[in-house]
Hints:
The structure is a single chain. This protein is of the alpha+beta class. It folds into 2 domains: 2-49 and 133-307, Multidrug efflux transporter AcrB transmembrane fold; 56-129, Alpha-Beta Plaits. The chain contains 15 helices and 6 strands. Strands 3-4-2-5 form a 4-stranded antiparallel sheet. It has a two-stranded parallel ribbon with strand order 1-6. Helix 10 runs antiparallel to helix 11. The longest helix is centred in the C-terminal third of the chain and has 37 residues, at 231-267. The protein is elongated. Residues 322-342 have low confidence and may be disordered.
Amino acid sequence: MSKLSGLGGRLYSGETSIDVIGKKKRWYAFSGLLILLSIGALTLQGLHLGIEFKGGASYTVTKAGASLDPAFEAVDAAGIPGEPIIQSVGNDQIRIQTGSLSGAESIALQDQLAAKYQVTVDSIDTQIVGPSWGKEITRKALYGLIGFIVVVLLYLAMAFEPKMAIAAIIAVLHDVFITVGIYALVGFDVTPATVIGFLTILGYSLYDTVVVFDKVRENTRSITATGKSTYSDAANLAVNQTLVRSMNTSLIALLPVGSILFVGAGLLGAGTLKDLSLALFIGLAAGTYSSIFIAPPILATLREREPAMQALAKRVAARNGSAPAEVAVGVVPSAIARGPRNQPKRKNRRK
């Protein structure tokens, strides 16, 4: 811990520096690779929408030690078309999700499930979602996402500056797209819990980005007047000064979410938690990455195109290049190294 705190102090003072802004092409290439993988997953597999979005029926059978085989037999015996999704939820529940069914098909499936699992029909939890209701939920989810982005864009533009708002929104879209792509690759169902997870990671990603941008604004407040460093140098210092804080905050947030995902959904079999926990886990990790390696470089690129910042860069370059060669490389000039010249002692003359 002492080493970590010492590293944080050196990063904050500028004694140690990670060149985040200067190596932006490396981070862009890595993000581009993730985006290409996401595009491939969405194109080849697509998102597995839950019945809440596409409509359908869900039947949950509760019985201790229940297996999946009786559910497959019940679906075949009832003559249910399509490819129903059959999965276990915990150790005592089996959930069967189908497309839209007629009244007779729904009753036949319930009877077969009750017979195969030796339970009563009334004990089977049945949920019927119409296609129109699913479209309404999808539309409202998209409206909520668009409204969130617009409100955040306006707030950041007023609280900071428009270019910071643009960089932050690009980072947020980067996080959401990667999360959606991994969701398609894994094959989890997109449920309302997934939408909640997406909105949560949007807020977290913006929170981390705002912390970094606030330090950038502090470091660049009077940068054109002092002329000591370029905008990219000041922004890179701000990223280093907030790096340890961002990593610690993200680690603390990922630990409980990882416990929900790997322990709750993986080991204990709580299937209802995996939709939310996967979106949160991937989104938190992507948000931490983008707030450090994507948003600040984009902001620096946008600001460096301004005439004032270009003139500042020329002044800084001229100032650094005008120094004597020996001083520039950190070698003390010979005249300074010798110190004061010793004058010969004067002898008193006697008349």
